[in-house]
Amino acid sequence: MPARSVLLSAALAAVPALCGCSSQHSLDERVAGNATAIRDAANFRTFRTDEPVELETKGAVGVVVDSFGGDVTVRADPTAKKTRVEVRRVSDMGLGRWQESREELADIAWTATLEPRESGGETLKVEAKTQNPEAHYFRAHIVIVAPALDAVAVRTTRGSVAVLENQGPVDIETSSGDVRMLTPWPMTQPIKIVTSEGSIDFRVRGESRLSFDAETRGGEVRQRCMFGKWRALGSENDHDRMLATLNDGTNPVFLRTSEKNIRIAVVADPTNVGREIVDP
Q1: Which of 31, 179, 181, 208 has the fewest CB atoms nearer than 10 Å to its CB?
Q2: What is the mean pLDDT of residues 144-158?
């Protein structure tokens, strides 16, 4: 059998073990996870899903993620009994360095710690890093599921970010990735989302009180407000720039990207979307 076929068979054989279903994974997440693993195997990316970490948390937990690179998903699941952290390490050195790539996954290290907050409650801090001199080949894809979410801060590169059903402020910075912030809770605190070469989807309920400053270079800013009082501000508003308020709010929402669109939706059910969002 050709070497390429042998390696592909070995990679695909690892997929079932690495994509085990958790009760805290939605059907969409399971399908997407399996598809990603198969795609990685077919492209000779090596990958390893680490044993999840489960932590006892009380009430809405804050989350801080600091990663050298990769996708980050942070979501609330009211049915969850504990806060769960899963990390999937991936290397993309290609077919010629497949075995080396597999061995060097050990160069990715991560930690998850739970710390008390002075104001009360707890903050989960997750850090992923690598000392590999070819760090651009590596990513750590992080999934965090908590019974309830408070403030969320994410720093990563070369990855998409999703924050779902948070109750507090959000601060996201990434590059070369899409960002979603979808929540059924009224937002009345600051939001900052900055990415590049990726779309931004911001969806909230009509009770939110916010002040928007959204701009993209090379895309469009689109909005749909089904509930609440929407007011566009400023003569500089254009297809790629929007200043506006929702319910005369003053809580800032700062959205920036390039090459792709920003979509803002104020709707009854902000999280009721599929894997693709075409319009606000």
Answers
A1: 31
A2: 98
